[in-house]
Amino acid sequence: MTPAIRGDADLDHVTSQRELEHVVREYAGRLATALVRVTGDFATAEDLVQDAVLAALQRWPAEGVPERPDAWLFTVARNRGIDAHRRRDNYRTKLAQIRWPVASESDDRLRLIFTCCHPALSRPAQIALTLRVVCGLTTAQIARAFLVPETTVARRITRAKRKISEAGIPYRVPDPDELNTRLREVLAVIYLVLNEGYLPTADLSESRDLVDDAGWLASQLHDLMPTEPEVAGLLALIQLHRARADARFDRDGDLVRLEHQDRASWDRDAISRATQLLRRAAEQHRPGPYQLQAAIVACHAEATDWADTDWEQIVLLYDMLLHLEPSPLTRLHRAIAVRYTAGPAAALAEVNALSGSLDHYHLYHATRAELLRAIDRPEEARDADRLALELTANPAEQAVLQRRVEWGTDGG
Question: How many domains does the chain have?
Answer without folding.
Answer: 1
